[in-house]
């Protein structure tokens, strides 16, 4: 165990490993030292001077972000001197910062606004001087730079330089003429560049996509996991009036630190689609007929019971562990072939964070699916489907050619969010929920099981796929009680899949748990 | 002084002995004048012995901070297996200071010799000389001298036949004041933006290219061979005041004196001797009003303080200012202190590197307030505001540029308040038209 030191911060004693910075030690003592340039995932330049604190026996105030703790240190973050220094920094920052909060996207989640409200001066003393003015610049595909709001904390510059390792941003000019500059003939188009918008503590770097869409205080924020690839970046889904308006990274030091890639960040419009399957549909001649869930479940149970021989599941790699597990268990009596669709793409690593990349396999739960036995090749599964007694499509959209191969299959059941050629072939279409509409888990590339939570209400009669599978299992006399929640569905997984035995949603918390034993061949 | 006037009898010409003597510029000429004996002697000594000799001499950094040179050298780690670097600070960007320029211009080999001794003492194989970009003539002289020293075998793989490698790199600055700050200078040499770095780590632990580095001023290094030649006791004996301040100091005097120029005084010389004897005093009919003794960054002194001030590190501190780099700006009663303070603040606002909030915004804001006072548009509360802002700019930033802007403002208001008030009340006509 590393050597520990004890420090007293605002009267609270904490023991932290030697080498910890004062600002991090203070967090553990329950004290947030106001700061701008400091960020736990970036090197600290100590330039904003906001985190100056009083350390007993030190003649000067010290920047908490770069001062490491010493045993026996006594720190006062709210001494008269420290408060006056912060008030001074806030005043200096505001002399050239426009008071355009009413039209600024950052308002409500702006650290300049928050700290000024908390402890800034009631009135400015900059009088009638005009503020520095520079026009808005386009930095990249999704990033606008509003230099007038910039407080030169340089987080964006350091992110590009030290984390993305693509130093396209710089501080140009000197003194109060300084601004964030872009290297000539370059733009901010790195696959992870969007993070500068989150890193910006004020409304200087803003997302074009989110521009003027919502006020921060109107948003509901839900902890989720990005379904975009096997990395499993933790994210927050921001919704306004049941509409997803923004995805943002959620801190998980083990997975994505504080970042997510632009592809994942921008991939949310599908969550708001209006053309959803909203009711169970049963084939009635050439057309589908809407039925209620009771009839639908009866029909499904009937199809499952009535078939014999081989079954095939063609699933989306973005379906939840709970749904993949229970749907597969629902067909356990068959000679079963299960496969997941894995769209492939270019890998895009974030150079400064080892192990963090937009992965080639663009399926958030590919590893979960493999652990659950979805191990068949897609083409082999399609071939098997041609003669299967029952084929279940779990949230996959098949191509016309793929659908044509199902002509000889016995029954086709589509658990679907959207109508497609696959659903038109299906004997039974059951409306299911998306990642944004349900609770569940994904397993990422490092076998970390991570929870995502429901961010918006599902359309019409859509239900999670694990729910309907559970109901069918009960009807078949398989389990005593159908799971009523995703947590129960997850707990039920352990019965058939030892890798998940003993785990609960609650234990996973907000940052997930790494599976200890994973069946060979499921490593992805 | 030596150039353009002969030395005054009250001067102690050591470094300035050959100023104006073009023959001293060449390698041959320098050797004829006793040059390179100090380096030859040093290469025969153990590095620790050189450091001890310097500690005994009492030599302190001539760039402004006055840190004991031998002690600084002793901070360099030994046997760490890493490359060590010596950086010679020849940026001399402090307004009012022009002594290093003359050392390089007239006695380039004195600097090369001093650098070589220092490099040997701290185990550095490479010395970077960072020369202010505007110094075109000193730059040409130094290039010529370094080439000559290589040709003569004083530098290179086998310096003076000692088997020691000492290489020189001359790096020309690009005109930023802040690059005279040692950590900003290291960034600049590395090809980065010249922003000061946070300390710790100190340069001796992780400096240039992350390696142990010592940075010394031109005047400090030029004094080193003399100390080795003539001994620590001789140097220590050059002291008229506090025993902690020894040797000679070049003072660059400018402003309202009859004979501005570089004067080499023994530490502890009274300031009035320098101003009234060596520099010939005020212009006819004028009286002394204010002195900025150590370059533009130090507090202003009034005539009374200057009158009985002793020129050594402690003596000037006792009068509320600092000896600094020895750039002395003298003002007579024709000077407008408010205007001069504004000129200084404007300089710092222009040169702030923009890292720290207080400096970036504070230097510009205080300049604007001073400007409106001079334009006759000042407000009653302005002086209190200036003092409060200056307090917010002092002791809170990475380097001392912000403090340097605040120092003349605070001392100016404290010591010459009626002049500020005359502008505020309208008793004095505006000196500036506000844009």
Helix count of chain B?
A: 17
Uncertain spans of chain A, ≥5 residues at pLDDT below 50?
none
Predict the CATH topology of the largest domain in chain A: Rossmann fold
Identify the overall geometry of chain A.
Answer: elongated
| Average pLDDT metric of chain B | 96
Q: What number of structural domains do the residues of chain A give?
A: 3
What separation lies between the terminal Cα atoms of chain B? 43 Å
Task: Give the strand order of the largest sheet of chain B, numbering strands 1, 2, ... along the chain.
Answer: 6-5-11-8-9
Oligomerization state of this entry? heterodimer
Strand content of chain A: 15-25%
pLDDT < 50 runs, ≥5 residues of chain B:
none
| Helix count, DSSP H or I runs of 4 or more residues of chain A | 15
Residues in helix, % of chain B: 40-55%
Using the CA coordinates, give the radius of gyration of chain B: 22 Å
Write the SSE topology.
The complex is a heterodimer of chains A (524) and B (435).
Chain A (H helix, E strand, L loop, with lengths): L3 E6 L2 E6 L4 H7 L23 E4 L6 E2 L10 E3 L3 H16 L15 H9 L17 E2 L4 E3 L9 H9 L5 E4 L6 E4 L12 H5 L5 E3 L12 E6 L8 E7 L2 E7 L12 H5 L14 E4 L2 E4 L2 H14 L3 E7 L4 H10 L4 E7 L6 E2 L7 E2 L7 H6 L6 H8 L4 E5 L5 H5 L6 E6 L4 H5 L2 E4 L8 E4 L4 E5 L12 H11 L10 H11 L8 H4 L4 E2 L10
Parallel strand pairs in A: 1-5, 16-17, 16-20, 20-21, 21-22
Antiparallel strand pairs in A: 1-2, 3-4, 3-5, 6-7, 7-10, 8-9, 11-12, 12-13, 14-15, 14-22, 18-19, 23-24, 24-25
Helix pairs in contact in A: 2-3, 7-13, 8-13, 8-14
Chain B lengths: L26 H6 L4 H7 L3 H11 L11 H6 L9 E7 L8 H8 L1 H15 L1 E8 L4 H16 L15 E6 L9 H8 L23 E5 H13 L1 H6 L10 E8 L5 E6 L2 E2 H8 L9 E5 L8 E2 H5 L2 E2 L1 H6 L8 E6 L4 H15 L5 H18 L7 H12 L7 H25 L10
Helix pairs in contact in B: 2-6, 2-9, 3-6, 5-6, 5-7, 6-9, 14-15, 14-17, 15-16, 15-17, 16-17
């Amino acid at each position: 165990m590393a050597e520990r030191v004890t420090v007293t911060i605002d009267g609270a004693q904490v023991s932290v490993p030697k080498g910890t910075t004062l600002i991090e030690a203070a967090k553990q003592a329950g004290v947030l030292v106001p700061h701008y340039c400091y960020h736990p995932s970036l090197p600290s330049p100590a330039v904003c001077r906001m985190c100056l604190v009083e350390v007993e026996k030190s003649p000067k105030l010290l920047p908490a972000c770069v001062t490491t703790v010493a045993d026996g240190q006594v720190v006062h973050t709210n001494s008269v001197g420290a408060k006056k220094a912060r008030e001074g920094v806030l005043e200096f920052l505001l002399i050239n910062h426009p008071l355009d909060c009413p039209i600024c996207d950052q308002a409500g989640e702006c650290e300049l606004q928050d700290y000024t409200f908390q402890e800034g001066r009631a009135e400015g003393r900059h009088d009638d001087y005009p503020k520095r003015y520079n026009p808005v610049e386009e930095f990249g595909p999704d990033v606008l730079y509003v230099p007038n709001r910039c407080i030169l904390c340089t987080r964006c510059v350091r992110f590009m330089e030290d984390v993305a390792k693509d130093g396209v941003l710089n501080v140009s000019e000197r003194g109060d003429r300084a601004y964030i500059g872009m290297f000539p003939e370059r733009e901010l188009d790195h696959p992870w560049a969007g993070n500068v918008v989150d890193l910006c503590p004020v409304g200087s770097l803003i997302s074009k996509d989110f521009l003027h869409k919502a006020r921060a205080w109107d948003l509901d924020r839900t902890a989720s996991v990005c379904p975009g690839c096997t990395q499993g970046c933790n994210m927050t889904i921001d919704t306004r009036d049941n509409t997803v308006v923004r995805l943002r990274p959620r801190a998980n030091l083990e997975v994505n630190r504080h970042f997510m890639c632009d592809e994942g960040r921008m991939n949310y419009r599908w969550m708001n689609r209006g053309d959803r399957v909203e009711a169970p549909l049963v084939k009635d001649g050439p057309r589908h007929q809407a039925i209620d869930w009771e009839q639908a479940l009866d029909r499904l149970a009937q199809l499952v019971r009535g078939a014999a021989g081989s079954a095939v599941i063609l699933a989306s790699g973005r379906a939840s562990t709970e749904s993949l597990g229970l749907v597969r268990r629902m067909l356990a009596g068959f000679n079963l072939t299960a496969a997941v669709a894995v769209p492939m793409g270019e890998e895009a690593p974030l150079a400064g964070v080892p192990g963090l990349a937009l992965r080639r396999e663009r399926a958030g739960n590919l590893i979960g699916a493999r652990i659950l036995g979805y191990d068949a090749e897609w083409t082999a599964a399609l071939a098997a489907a041609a003669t299967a007694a029952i084929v279940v499509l779990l949230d996959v959209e098949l191509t016309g050619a793929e659908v044509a191969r199902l002509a000889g299959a016995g029954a086709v059941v589509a658990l679907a969010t959207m109508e497609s050629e696959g659903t038109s072939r299906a004997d039974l279409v059951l409306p299911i929920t998306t990642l944004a509409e349900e609770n569940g888990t994904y397993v990422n590339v490092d076998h970390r099981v991570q929870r995502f939570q429901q961010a918006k209400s599902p359309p019409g009669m859509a239900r999670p796929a694990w729910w309907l599978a559970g109901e069918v299992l009960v009807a078949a006399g398989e389990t005593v009680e159908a799971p009523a929640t995703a947590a129960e569905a997850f707990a039920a997984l352990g019965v058939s899949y030892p890798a998940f035995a003993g785990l609960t949603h609650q234990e996973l918390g907000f940052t997930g748990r790494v599976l200890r034993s994973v069946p060979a061949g499921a490593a992805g | 002084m030596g150039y353009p006037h002969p030395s005054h009898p009250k001067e102690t010409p050591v470094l300035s002995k050959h100023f104006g003597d073009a023959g001293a510029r060449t390698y041959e000429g320098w050797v004829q004048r006793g040059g390179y004996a100090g380096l030859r002697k040093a290469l025969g000594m153990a590095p620790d012995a050189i450091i001890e000799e310097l500690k005994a001499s009492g030599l302190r950094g001539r760039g402004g901070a006055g840190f004991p040179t031998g002690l600084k050298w002793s901070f360099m780690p030994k046997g760490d297996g890493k490359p060590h670097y010596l950086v010679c600070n020849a940026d001399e960007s402090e307004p009012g200071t022009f002594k290093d320029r003359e050392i390089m211009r007239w006695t380039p080999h004195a600097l090369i010799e001093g650098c070589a001794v220092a490099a040997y003492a701290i185990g550095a194989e490479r010395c970077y000389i960072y020369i202010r970009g505007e110094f075109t003539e000193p730059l040409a002289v130094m290039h010529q001298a370094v080439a000559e020293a290589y040709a003569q075998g004083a530098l290179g793989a086998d310096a003076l036949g000692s088997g020691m490698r000492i290489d020189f790199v001359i790096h020309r600055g690009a005109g930023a004041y802040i690059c005279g700050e040692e950590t900003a200078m290291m960034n600049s040499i590395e090809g980065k933006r010249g922003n000061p770095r946070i300390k710790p780590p100190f340069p001796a632990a992780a400096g240039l290219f992350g390696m142990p580095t010592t940075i010394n001023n031109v005047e400090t290094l030029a004094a080193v061979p003399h100390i080795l030649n003539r001994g620590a006791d001789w140097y220590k004996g050059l002291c008229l005041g506090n025993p902690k301040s020894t040797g000679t100091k070049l003072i660059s005097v400018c402003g309202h004196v009859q004979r501005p120029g570089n004067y080499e005084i023994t530490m502890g010389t009274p300031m009035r001797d320098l101003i009234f004897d060596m520099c010939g005093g005020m212009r006819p009919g004028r009286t002394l009003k204010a002195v900025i003794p150590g370059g533009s960054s130090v507090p202003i002194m009034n005539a009374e303080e200057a009158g009985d001030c002793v020129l050594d590190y402690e003596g000037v501190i006792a009068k509320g200012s600092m000896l600094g780099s020895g750039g002395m700006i003298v003002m007579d009663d024709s000077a407008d202190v408010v205007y001069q303070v504004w000129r200084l603040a404007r300089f710092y606002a222009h040169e702030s590197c923009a890292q720290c909030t207080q400096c970036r915004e504070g230097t510009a804001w205080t300049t604007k307030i001073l400007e409106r006072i001079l334009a006759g548009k000042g407000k009653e509360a302005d002086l209190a505001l200036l003092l409060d802002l200056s307090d917010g700019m002092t002791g809170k930033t990475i380097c001392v540029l912000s403090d340097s802007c605040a120092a003349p403002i605070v001392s100016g208001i404290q010591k010459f308040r009626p002049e500020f008030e005359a502008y505020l009340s309208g008793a004095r006509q505006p000196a500036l038209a506000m844009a």
